Structure formats: structure tokens, C-alpha cells
TrEMBL record, chain A:
Coiled coil regions in record: none
Transmembrane segments: 20-37, 49-71, 77-94, 101-121, 127-144, 165-191, 222-241, 276-298
Membrane topology of this protein: Multi-pass membrane protein
Name of the protein described by the UniProt record: ABC transporter permease
Keyword Transmembrane: yes
Taxonomic lineage of the native organism: Bacteria, Bacillati, Actinomycetota, Actinomycetes, Streptosporangiales
Subcellular location: Cell membrane
From TrEMBL, chain B:
Residues annotated as domain ABC transporter: 20-256, 270-512
Protein name, per record: Sugar ABC transporter ATP-binding protein
Annotated source species: Actinomadura parmotrematis
Gene3D superfamilies assigned to the protein according to its UniProt record, in alphabetical order: P-loop containing nucleotide triphosphate hydrolases (3.40.50.300)
Alphabetically ordered keywords of this record: ATP-binding, Nucleotide-binding, Repeat, Transport
Domain of life of the organism encoding this protein: Bacteria
Region (Disordered), start-end ranges: 1-20
GO molecular function: ATP binding
Length: 326, 521
């Protein structure tokens, strides 16, 4: 192959990531225009923006963890259920008695603990990630139901500090939006600026090469799932703040939204390639669509159909990107 | 051409036109000419053996024949008719079936379904189970294995059974020409005897067999004629298998036309300290009781056939495999069998399968090179990317990687430059030992000379190097000391100066399928 052809291919590869981000940004812009035109009085308001970002924040934090797991060559189906479990555990009467700080700690510990268990099963028990985390999905929901007796647990008034994440606003935005932003920035830095992030790409892209380069692939995999669990714990805090409850029904099907957002964002489901910015743009596209359908009083069924169509379109585009390389 | 020595069997008389006639076959791959004018003529009912060293072009030739590759030049005639099979399926329809070393069977399916995979007996899309099983049973009986049940799951069969299923599949296509690539490699002695019996029956029925094996005594036993390949050319065609002296065959296989530029050896000074010591290393089924040591500045070469345990020995030293017995010492201290420990203690490896085992193909050269040395550029996990890039760029310049662009995806580099990137990974950090597994595979001649010089320079700088190569001249030209391996055991150890290619090849090819460590599968 001659040099120009090689160069062309290299630039095509470099372009594809930036190009996808641009494409998602354009899609987001178009959706905003549609919103402003169809609902001029309601779409472009602070209230609506806050509600979109609040919705995005919960799944967004989970999507950050999911991006790491998928780039690292795995998948985590248990995120929604683990978040529910963390929210329930943190709002039991016993936990609430210790006050908000312990509740927050409890949510983080439960999330991370479940993630560690996922990681142990996958990395050291050599289970297929799909199966290990599917089992965790079922079991965590069950445990959440048992702990809460299938009742929605209310945040007690003296623990209102947690609710203030949703009610206290800085520059017009609730604190939980800043929390989400902080998680996103920290995630981006971790993925793109640290040894851990670099190794995540290696472990997902070619585990054998990573192992032969002296990387402890199993330990790294364990940490990836623990990280995803930690994100679920943070998401549990956000959902407690937004709904003032802990419930075993929280986060139903969040795993699908998070995985869809990661895929739309251009991360390869087989691992080794992907961006956090893409995942979050994908998530925003999804959230804004939901918002548009609600604002326009459209059927939620149609909303699901639209989301499905978007996933397919994004994957087809992704395949075209791959074809351009080979 | 030599006269055909008459053998019992179905070989057609020399006067008849050959069943298969390949002339002037050329196959060009990016960066390498795999076949450069090969002639092969096979008669109906004969066993025609194909001999040649690794890289001589045997695999490519049979892939051309079986429709997996299309030749760039030359003609293939089957029973006098020019053919150009565009796919393995097309070749099968013409009656050409290949049985590769890695059998292409579906483990989860029963024997009968595997045999008729792709040409199932069916009516209106419904499989005719009874008929399929009866036909499969007939084929298996014809192959001398009536005990294999058509309903058995293929994944549960032993290696020999799988081989028989593969052959049954070929027969189910009414193959006139059967290509067998090292069929005896995974078989025990008595199974080889049965294989030969089956081959004789097939040839008696007029089927022609193209037989590839490294084992000369097998070729003498089963073969009618021999064609020798070397560097992509047929250097001798149609030699009588039974009577051509071994020395002649070996000479044909080795007589090298292209002189490789091996740099001058600068032997390690006598007092150089021992860096790596391997004691009684054993991995059951792969290799047994391997001991040697390497001093600073020394290159030790391991010579042996594929399957002789060469690569596995390197991988075990490196900690990628756990030995059943024996140990590895680095600078006199035992090395735990983990790659993380090996890398931390200063061992680097360039594995055999560069793309599958060493490279992140989609990532940039820079990220590939720095992968093993990341902690060097990190403070509390935070990467100093400027320092990382500067070091990578310096290493790329040292090794003359072209183009010297750290941001280019490693996928877009040529084989030689990819290999240099793998070496750069280990040279970015201080290494004590470098393990090189087939460092010049898929590397063109010019880049080879550069890699040779590089390896010698590294040794000169005090590294201990262990080199594995299936090309004997490479081992002899580059190493100070050579260990000859056969079937997992060290059969000879000598300074490279005291060995020549013929002697090593003789040692490697001696012996039979029976070996102390031969395992099946």
C-alpha cells in the first residue's frame, strides 16, 4: 500500500471519533430546535432544562461507569438494580438513624460492594460478564425488595440534607447537576489522562497483549466493575435526592438506557475503543427525546420506537466507520 | 524429473496425463512474495508429498489449490481442464478437498452433521436425519472407524477421531484430490498407522493425495513422489519418495539462494554474569526438563519444529504459562510465574503472533510502545504525556521505525515496523532479558537485516536474549549458542559456530510421531 493511502486511512480513523461527536452534537441541536418550535413556551425554559439535566444526571453517572466497563471489554447489566439496592439500603430506618452522611456512605459502599462482587465473578470466577451481571441484576432487585418489604421508603425530614442536592440551586441549577458534571469530568480524566484509563483500553482491545505487556488484567477487570458499582452508588444518592425515596423499583431498565447511550456514543461493544464524551452526548440525545415526547403529550410507546430507531441508525453509522478502515 | 519408482498402490502409470498440473504459480502478499513460481504435478492415485521449511510456501500453495487464495500468475489444470476455484466451496465442487492442521469442525454438532455441513441432505428444508446418519456411517466404516457414532458430538472425540470426521467430510464431496496438511501432527503412533491404511485405500480407489509433513520417515513410508519447496519456488519436482537420500532432500530444502545479512557476532566477554537461568522447566504435553542459562550480552537460540515446545518455553519463562515443575531465576533470584512479575523484574517478550498477542491495532504507535512502561510516566497514576511522547519518539528514531509518527495507528505500519514497535516497547525501559519469538515472521528481507543488527546491538549493550525461530539459518546466524529441540526436549546444545543447517535440520527431523511428550490436541 502506498503512503497516501495509508495516510488517508489514518485520517479517516482520526476523523471518525470527532465526526461522531459532531454528529451527535448536531442531532442534539436539531432536537432543541424541534423542541423550541413545537413547544415555544415550555421547552426553552430553565425549569425544563433542570428537569432534563436531573433525568440525565442519574443515568449519566451510571453511563460513566458503564463506559469504563464496556471499553474494558465487559458489560454490566446490573447497574439499575444495584442503584435500587443502594437507595433502599441507605433509606432503611436503621441507616436513616445515623444521619445523611452515613446514608451517603452506605449507598456508596453497597454500590461498590456489588460491583466488586461482579468483578470477582467475571475476573477471577471467569464468568461471562453478561451472565454474572445478569445474575446480579436479579439478585440485587430481590434483595432490595426484601430489605424494603416492597415498600417505598421515604426520606425522613431530619435527613433533608440529601434532598437539598435537588432543591438547592447554584446559578439556577440544582447541586446534583454539578455532582453529575464532577463525576463526568473525573471520569474523563481517569479514562484519558491516567495509567488506569490507558490500561482500560488495552485490556478491552486485546487482553492477551495487555497480559503479555505485564498488566494484571484480572485485577484491572475487577476494578472496572467496582468503579461501575461506585457510580451506581452515586446515582442512588441522586435518585434519593430527586424522589426523596428509596425503592426497589428505582432504576428499572436503566441498564438498557446506559448501554444504548454508550453504543450511540461510538464505543465498540467488544471493547478497546470509545469515548466518554460520546457516551454522554448519546445520553443527552436520549434524554431530550424523552423530554420532547413528554412535552408534546405524545405516547411513550412512540418514544420507545424512536429510541430503537436511533440505536439502529447509530450502529449502522458505526459499521460504516469501521468499513472505512478496512 | 526423476523416474517414478513403482509402488504398490493405485498410482497411474507415468505415461498418463497428471490429474493435477500447477505451473508457474505466483502469489504476492503485501510486503512478501509467498509463491514465486511453483510447479506441482500430481497423478491420480498417488501420494504426493510436499516438503519445505517453514515459510517456504507450502501453506500458501495448498490454499491456492483449495480455493482459499487466488494466484496472481500461473495456471492450475485439473484433469486437463484449466480451473480457477474462487472459493473453497468452488474447489470442493471440483473435487478438491483440504484437511487443514486446525480442523474446521463445529464442536457442538454431531459427527453426521459435521460431515454434511454445507451440503446437508434435506427435503423442503427439513434434514433427513436417517439418511444422513446412514451415509455418515458408511463413510466412517470406509475409513476404518465404524465405532465412531454419527450421533456423537464432535467436540468430545479425541484428536484422531476428529481427523477421521474431517476426512469423511472430504470424501462426502467425492473428492478426487485430497490435501492433507500435517495430518499426523496430533496423532499417536498406532493412529498414524491407521491413517496410512486409509490413505492407501483411497489411493487404490484412484484418489490423489497431496501430503504435507515434516517427518521424513513418514514420507518414505506413505509417499510416492516428493516436491520440495524453498523460498516460494519448487526446487525439485517428482523425486521418488522411497529412494531419494535424506541428505539430498535436506540439501534441497536448505540450499539458500538469498544470503541473509547477519551482523558479526561479538561474543559476550567470558566473565559476563549469568542473567537468566532456567532449571528443569516442565509443562506436561508441551516440553520437559528444559534447562539452560543466558549470560549478559549473549544470544541463545532455540531451534525446533512447530510443536516442539519452542514458543511454550518462552511463554513459560515469561510467566504467561505456569510450569508443572522447574523454575526460572533472574539474576540468581527465583522469578514467580506471572507476567506482571516478569515485566517488573526486567524481562520483555516479543511474542510469535505480533497482532494477536502484542499489539493494540487500533491504537497509536505511541500508546502501543509505552504500554508496558506506563508507571514510568505516572505520578499517582497521572500520566505525564509530554515525557511519554518524547521517550516514544526517541525510541522510534533509535529503531528507525518508518514512518516515525507516534500518532499513527499501529495497524497501518508494515510488518517489520510493527515488530520494531513491539521491540521499542521493551527498549523504552531498562530490560535485562529479551525473549524473541519468531521476530522476523512476516517481515520482508530488507527489514530483516535491520532487525538482526538490532538484536546484536541489544546483546552488545548487555541484554540477555533468547531467540526462537523456525528458520534455522536465522538461529545459527544470530545466536551465540543454540539449543536444538525435538518434541519438547533439548536434544543438543552447542555454540552456533559448531553447527550447520544440515546438522540441525537432521536432529530436528529425526525421530517419529512417538515422543515422550507428544500429547494429543
Amino acid at each position: 500500500m502506498d503512503e497516501t493511502a495509508r495516510f488517508g486511512r489514518a485520517t479517516a480513523l482520526a476523523w471518525s471519533t470527532g465526526g461522531r461527536h459532531a454528529g451527535l452534537a448536531v442531532a442534539l441541536l436539531l432536537l432543541a430546535i424541534v423542541g423550541t418550535v413545537t413547544r415555544p413556551g415550555t421547552f426553552a425554559t430553565t425549569d425544563n432544562l433542570v428537569s432534563v439535566l436531573g433525568l440525565a444526571a442519574t443515568i449519566g453517572v451510571i453511563t460513566v461507569g458503564m463506559t469504563f466497563v464496556i471499553v474494558g471489554g465487559g458489560i454490566d447489566l446490573s447497574v439499575g438494580a444495584v442503584m435500587a439496592l443502594a437507595s433502599v439500603w441507605a433509606t432503611t430506618l436503621a441507616t436513616q438513624a445515623y444521619g445523611p452522611a452515613v446514608m451517603v456512605l452506605c449507598a456508596l459502599l453497597v454500590g461498590t460492594g456489588a460491583g466488586l462482587l461482579n468483578g470477582l465473578l467475571v475476573a477471577y470466577g471467569r464468568m461471562v460478564p453478561f451472565i454474572a451481571t445478569l445474575a446480579m441484576l436479579v439478585a440485587a432487585r430481590g434483595l432490595a425488595q426484601r430489605l424494603s418489604d416492597r415498600r417505598t421508603q421515604l426520606l425522613r425530614p431530619e435527613n433533608g440534607a440529601i434532598e437539598s442536592l435537588a432543591t438547592t440551586r447554584v446559578l439556577g441549577l440544582p447541586l446534583l447537576v454539578y455532582l453529575f458534571a464532577a463525576v463526568a469530568v473525573a471520569g474523563w480524566l481517569l479514562l484519558n489522562r491516567t495509567t488506569f484509563g490507558r490500561r482500560t483500553f488495552a485490556v478491552g482491545g486485546n487482553p492477551e497483549a495487555a497480559r503479555l505487556a505485564g498488566i494484571d488484567v484480572r485485577r484491572h477487570t475487577l476494578l472496572l466493575y467496582a468503579l461501575s458499582g461506585l457510580c451506581c452508588g452515586i446515582a442512588a444518592i441522586i435518585i434519593m435526592a430527586r424522589t426523596t425515596t428509596g425503592s426497589s423499583t428505582h432504576g428499572d431498565l436503566y441498564e438498557l438506557d446506559a448501554i444504548a447511550a454508550v453504543i450511540i456514543g461510538g464505543t465498540l461493544l467488544t471493547g478497546g475503543r470509545g469515548t466518554l464524551v460520546g457516551s454522554l452526548l448519546g445520553l443527552l440525545v436520549f434524554t431530550v427525546i424523552t423530554d420532547l415526547f413528554i412535552l408534546n403529550g405524545l405516547d411513550t410507546s412512540d418514544q420507545l420506537i424512536a429510541k430503537g430507531a436511533i440505536i439502529i441508525a447509530a450502529v449502522l453509522l458505526q459499521r460504516r466507520g469501521l468499513a472505512a478502515r478496512t | 524429473m526423476t523416474d517414478d519408482t513403482a509402488r504398490p498402490g493405485g498410482a497411474a502409470p507415468p505415461g498418463e496425463p497428471p490429474l493435477l498440473e500447477m505451473t508457474g504459480i505466483v502469489k504476492q502478499f503485501p510486503g512478501a512474495r509467498a509463491l514465486d513460481g511453483v510447479d506441482l504435478s500430481v497423478r491420480a492415485g498417488e501420494v504426493h508429498c510436499l516438503l519445505g521449511q517453514n515459510g517456504a510456501g507450502k501453506s500458501t500453495l495448498i490454499k491456492v489449490l483449495a480455493g482459499a487464495h487466488r494466484p496472481d500468475a500461473g495456471s492450475v489444470r485439473l484433469a486437463g481442464r484449466e480451473i480457477r476455484p474462487a472459493s473453497p466451496t468452488a474447489a470442493l465442487r471440483l473435487g478438491i478437498a483440504a484437511i487443514y492442521q486446525e480442523l474446521d469442525l463445529v464442536d457442538g454438532l454431531p459427527v453426521a452433521d459435521n460431515i454434511y455441513l454445507g451440503h446437508e441432505m434435506a427435503r423442503l428444508g427439513f434434514g433427513l436425519r436417517g439418511r444422513t446418519h446412514r451415509a455418515a456411517r458408511d463413510l466412517l466404516a470406509r475409513l476404518g472407524h465404524p465405532e465412531i457414532s454419527p450421533a456423537a458430538e464432535v467436540g468430545r472425540l479425541p484428536a484422531a477421531g476428529r481427523q477421521i470426521v474431517s476426512m469423511a467430510r472430504a470424501l462426502s464431496h467425492d473428492a478426487r484430490l485430497l490435501i492433507m496438511d500435517e495430518p499426523s501432527a496430533a496423532l499417536a503412533h498406532h493412529e498414524v498407522a491407521n491413517l496410512f491404511r486409509v490413505i492407501r485405500e483411497l489411493t487404490a480407489a484412484g484418489v490423489a493425495v497431496v501430503y504435507i509433513s515434516h517427518r521424513l520417515e513418514e514420507i518414505r513410508e506413505i509417499g510416492d513422489r516428493v516436491t520440495v519447496l524453498k523460498d516460494g519456488r519448487s526446487v525439485a519436482a517428482g523425486l521418488p519418495a522411497a529412494t531419494t537420500p535424506t541428505a539430498r532432500v535436506v540439501a534441497l530444502m536448505t540450499g539458500r539462494s538469498a544470503a541473509h545479512g547477519f551482523p558479526e557476532r561479538r561474543p559476550a566477554p567470558g566473565g559476563a554474569p549469568e542473567v537468566l537461568r532456567v532449571e528443569g522447566l516442565t509443562l506436561p504435553g508441551r516440553f520437559a526438563d528444559v534447562s539452560f542459562s543466558v549470560r549478559a550480552g549473549e544470544v541463545v537460540g532455540l531451534a525446533g519444529l512447530v510443536g516442539s515446545g519452542r514458543s511454550e518455553i518462552l511463554e513459560t519463562i515469561y510467566g504467561a504459562r505456569r510450569p508443572a515443575a522447574g523454575r526460572v531465576l533472574l539474576d540468581g533470584r527465583p522469578l514467580p510465574p506471572r507476567t506482571t512479575a516478569a515485566v517488573r523484574r526486567g524481562i520483555g517478550m516479543a511474542p510469535e503472533e505480533r497482532k494477536a498477542q502484542a499489539l493494540l491495532l487500533d491504537e497509536s504507535v505511541a500508546r502501543n510502545v509505552s504500554l508496558a512502561a506506563l508507571p514510568r510516566y505516572a505520578r499517582f497514576g497521572w500520566l505525564d504525556r509530554r515525557r511519554e511522547r518524547a521517550d516514544v519518539a526517541a525510541r522510534l528514531a533509535d529503531l528507525d521505525v518508518r514512518p516515525a509518527d507516534p500518532d499513527r495507528p499501529v495497524r497501518t505500519l508494515s510488518g517489520g515496523n510493527q515488530q520494531k514497535a513491539v521491540l521499542a516497547r521493551w527498549l523504552i525501559d531498562r530490560r535485562r532479558v529479551l525473549l524473541l519469538d519468531e521476530p522476523t515472521r512476516g517481515v520482508d528481507v530488507g527489514a530483516r537485516a535491520e532487525l538482526y543488527r538490532l538484536v546484536r546491538d541489544l546483546a552488545g549493550a548487555g541484554l540477555a536474549v533468547v531467540l526462537v525461530s523456525s528458520e534455522i539459518p536465522e538461529v545459527l546466524g544470530l545466536a551465540d549458542r543454540v539449543l536444538v529441540l525435538r518434541e519438547g526436549r533439548v536434544v543438543h546444545e552447542a555454540p552456533a559456530d559448531g553447527l550447520d543447517e544440515h546438522a540441525v535440520l537432521n536432529m530436528i527431523m529425526e525421530g517419529s510421531a512417538m515422543g515422550a511428550v507428544t500429547g494429543d490436541g
